[in-house]
Specification:
66 residues; DNA-bd_dom_put_sf; Prophage_regulatory_activator; globular; Multidrug-efflux Transporter Regulator, Chain: A, Domain 2; alpha+beta; 4 strands; four-stranded antiparallel sheet; Prophage CP4-57 regulatory
Length: 66
């Protein structure tokens, strides 16, 4: 599933794909959402999906390890 975002296709990721992309466990992702430390999902009926662009921005905002 995808959406158009600023001239490019913005994929919608499920929790497994988000977990793989971020190297975070699914439980950790939901904990971080509750603390407003991670982008919330988009609700599609009973499903939840994350915009890939939101996840990419979140990853880019992380501090670099030294």
């Amino acid at each position: 599933m995808s959406l158009e975002y600023m001239g490019r296709v913005d994929r919608l990721l499920n929790i497994k794909q988000v977990s793989e992309k971020t190297s975070l466990g699914q439980t950790k992702i939901y904990e971080m959402i509750k603390l407003n430390e991670f982008p919330p999902p988009v609700k599609l009926g009973r499903s939840r999906r994350w915009r890939e662009s939101d996840i990419d921005r979140w990853i880019a905002s992380l501090p670099l390890a030294v």
